[in-house]
Amino acid sequence: MGAGVRLPSVALKAALIVLFAFVIFGPIANMLIWAFAEVWYFPHKLPLKWGFAFWERVFRPQGNAMASLGTSVVIAFGTVLCSLAIAIPAGYALGRGKLPWRTAFLLLFLLPQAFPSVAVHMNIARIFYSLGLNGTLTGVVLVHTLQGLVFSVWIATAAFAAVDRDLELAARNMGATPFLAFRTVTLPLALPGILASAIFVFLTSLDEFTGTFFVGVPEIKTMPLLLFSASMEGNYQVASITALILLVPSILFMLLIERFLKADVLAKVGS
Amino acid sequence: MKGVSIEIADLSVSYGGTQVLTGIDLSIAPGEFIALLGPSGCGKTTLLRTLAGFVPAAAGEVRVDGQDVTGLPPEKRGMAMMFQSYALWPHMTVAENISFPLRIRRQPKAMVTAQVQRMLTLVGLDGFADRNVTRLSGGQRQRVALARALAVDPPVLLLDEPLSNLDARIRLSMRHEVKSLQKQLGLTAILVTHDREEAMAMADRVVILDHGTVAQAGTPEEIYHRPVSPYVAAFMGAENTCAVSLRHEGDRIALSGQQIRGTADLPVRAVNSRVRQDGPAAVFFRGDAARIAVPGETGSGDRDGHLTLSGRVSLHSYLGNVYRHTVDIGGSPFLVDHPVRMDVGVAVDVCVPAAALHIFERTGSAAATPAGEQFAQTH
After folding, report:
1. Closest CB from A164, A166, A172 relative to B75
2. Is the ipTM above a cut-off of 0.95?
3. CATH number of the domain at B239-362, please?
């Protein structure tokens, strides 16, 4: 009986894995093919002509790809710095649980995500316009920070809450001022969680479209905007190549964090 | 540095509306070892944390070496604390943990290294300097915590149940190590514990706390032999209690009661009696201070100056050196130790010598045991 039950369950598992792989890798494979296709139209299953012609177009100086990539990365780093500057003090205050209305504060950071993002960004754009922030790097970084704040503050709160209060008190007891105790004991112990949130924020910023569209255009051109206009023009080759380029900073940033933290530390996040 | 004196005057502490400590008065001599003893919730840990500056005082004063430290932050108090959880920093090695207080005082590197080495030798952890603290055993962590606390030569050492996470054998040897280190260094030490044996073995003076007040403070001998209240008596192991009627007759005390055989006639000097007037009272005694006799086997002369209770054995357990018998006397259980096992159901006499009796006024309802079995501890 055992074998009779096991066989269908193995087959089912295999089928599910194949399905998941297809759902995840299918579109990526399609994108990869498009990146190297020069001529491809219906009803052909595969491109008629392969080549690097479009890569040359994207990387041409007037193609804007490198400039947008630079803008995207600068904005992403700016966003990470900005959200850490808010998330570390806010997470410490919320994680220590001394703050009244703690839950209300936590929900407050979720609020920008709760409303339709187009509506939120349209209104931000109007406010930023009057402040002269429209079309500036600062404006875009602020909008991206708002998006990333819910991740960074929540994760930082959990990370600080997981640090045993006695560890901090022991440092105070040994003669450390509150700030020194925070810098030498609490922050290093919460750092794995905080850096994990930095990955989220970095990736979200790199991918952000709506906010950049309303606040940044036309002065600020990021990779997702380039990708959007390429797809709108029906230029799938350029869109696919742009998307592939966008992967580079994401992977580099993750490698950086991974190098900085040992894997076993990352695995302990939240435990 | 030599130990300093600590003066606690009328100290009160409250936590979010609840009063945890009320009017604590205590003066501690330089170099003295004090144990704060009591069941959980009596406020002993809060008192220690208030001394360390982690918990603000609602009223009263703490003076260290004559100087008021009540409003000072923890880092300015010169008190080194050993936490129950040890509170070692997991992102630092053994040496980094111990050198932390020295490093933040910006001492020269050579001095720091030498002091860390001295501390490691002091607590018997030579060669552990570069170990990760998360890879140490409980006993080793405890030694690191002690070394870290002692690294800056503090005048006061605070110990928050430092031995409670260790297994029984290591605990016994650590007791003596900590105490001899404290004497050797001459520092003032305050220990929080719920273990009365630990308190008596380590401290020069034991302070028993009851719901945020000092129930009794005295040498281990005083609180063991001369408890001032039923609470202290029961906490120190005198959990057997019965209601009596008391009469003073010159320099003797006569006790009678439902559970007592005849009338016990005892010399007033021998008994720890807190009762001044004739009338209802309560008697407390420890199970290891009483003995069991079979009725009629020994002469009655043997029982002079004793309190004799009659009952039946209902249970016995072997403790290694003695058998602990549960004797049912007038419907209530009494614990009595005896070297020979008595069979269940046998009628026996429980004889308590006058010197082992604590007599208090009977307050309100039946037996005045404060928290009954909560204090039960095996030896």
Report:
1. A172
2. no
3. 2.40.50.140
